[in-house]
Amino acid sequence: MRSFSGFPPGKTRSVRLPEPLFTELIPLIDDLDELKTTLHVLYLLEQQQGAARYVERQDLLADPLLLAALGEPTAGAVEAALERAVERGTLLRAQAAPGATARRETIYFANTPKGRAALESLRRGEPLPETQPALRTNIFVLYEENIGPLTPLIVDELREAEDAYPDEWVEAAFREAVALNKRSWRYIRAILERWHNEGRQDETDRPNRQEDRRRYIEGKYRDYIEH
To answer: Using CA atoms, how far apart are residues 185 and 79, in angstroms rounded to an integer?
Structure first.
């Protein structure tokens, strides 16, 4: 039996998986290759961003990590595992022309609200957008470089903010906080919440940065801000 040397020290990237995967789906899966393929596909989908997240059949058949994980490292084993996952209802399968190519390819969505919506869009004849790599490290790098080490609690809050706000807002909020020497996530979160509630102006539309700073400190977000 091959052994595992353990998780490495220091910060490692986490992957979000839905709780029903562990409480409802895994107890139903009775085939090891299906389980490994399901987890691998969900992992690949989590690396993407945007409303339409999908993986292409041809990429899965040649994926070295997936092939190495299965009982037989062959495209046939991947095909069989994908078929079981589709039959079980974990994955949704469709024929589409990903990206700019006109060639139709078999693609897979997760059976989530977003996956079902994307499948319905395809059935209505709407074009399939290209998948976009997720900028997963952006907000975490900004935090570590400008505030300090990550903790499990702050990671969850950063992920929520990453999903809730545009990337340019997050970067601008960090710049605002650093410029005012307010290196606090609560301060940055307050800026983002204010922009969400009141609208965000461009920097060129802010002639009085001192007045803007006072609005953060003395306004309704004063309880969040560290003076």
So the answer is: 46
Tokens 């950063």 -> residue: 158
Judged against a pLDDT cut of 70, whether residue 12 lies above it is answered with: no
Pairing state between β 132-133 and 48-49 = antiparallel
Looking at residue 145, its pLDDT comes to 87
Report the sign of the C-alpha dihedral through residues 113, 117, 123, 129, in that order: negative
Enumerate domains of the chain plus CATH numbers: 19-133 (1.10.10.10), 138-224 (no CATH)
In the chain, alpha helices (H): 19-20, 32-46, 57-61, 64-69, 75-88, 113-123, 138-146, 152-164, 167-179, 185-198, 209-218
Question: What's the whole-number average pLDDT of the chain?
Answer: 83
What is the value of pTM for the model shown? 0.60
Reported in sequence order, the residue ranges of 103-214 that DSSP labels E, i.e. its strands, are 105-110, 132-133
Q: Return the beta strands (E) in 123-207 as ranges.
A: 132-133
Region 190-209: what's the mean pLDDT?
72
Res 224: pLDDT: 43
